[in-house]
Amino acid sequence: MDLSNLAPAPGATKKRKRIGRGPGSGHGKTSGKGHKGRGARSGGNTPPGYEGGQMPLQRRLPKHGFRNLFRIEYSIVNVGDLEKHFEAGAVVDAAALQTHGLVRLRTRPIKILGDGAVTKALTVKANKFSATAKQRLEAAGGSIEVVSRG
């Protein structure tokens, strides 16, 4: 066995369809395109969603909904998660949250919510805090710092 003997496995390859090569080939005359019409002509293929002139489904269905261009999507972290992942006296910022796997995208602003209990005094830097989160962090002896988006 050497490189000169290599061949694809039986049935792994197919001969290409040689269209327009006479009646004996089975693909002569109209070259498998049928007679006349859009499909037989150059550049003649139907766009996706075309239903033969019938009103397409996309246009038959009613429009609904609204997507606000100015909506801000926050990465959410609960104070209970901070309790689990950080030691007392730690400074919690975007980089620290990402290294601990609490936020995935650094491009999104971070909002701290008040779900869970916190007993450690933490210095938390984030873009937004819920009222409950502020209350729980300050009650535990920690401090909060609102960081502007930028």
Strand order in the largest sheet: 1-3-5
* Class from helix and strand fractions: alpha/beta
Could you estimate the helical fraction of the residues in percent? 10-25%
Give the number of helices: 4
Largest sheet: 3 strands, parallel
CATH class of the domain at 75-146: Alpha Beta
Describe the structure.
By secondary structure, the chain is an alpha/beta fold. The chain is built from 4 helices and 6 strands. The protein has helices spanning about 55-60, 80-85, 95-100, 130-140; strands spanning about 75-80, 90, 110-115, 125, 130, 145. The strands form 2 sheets. It has a 3-stranded parallel β-sheet with strand order 1-3-5. A 3-stranded parallel β-sheet has the order 2-4-6. It is elongated.
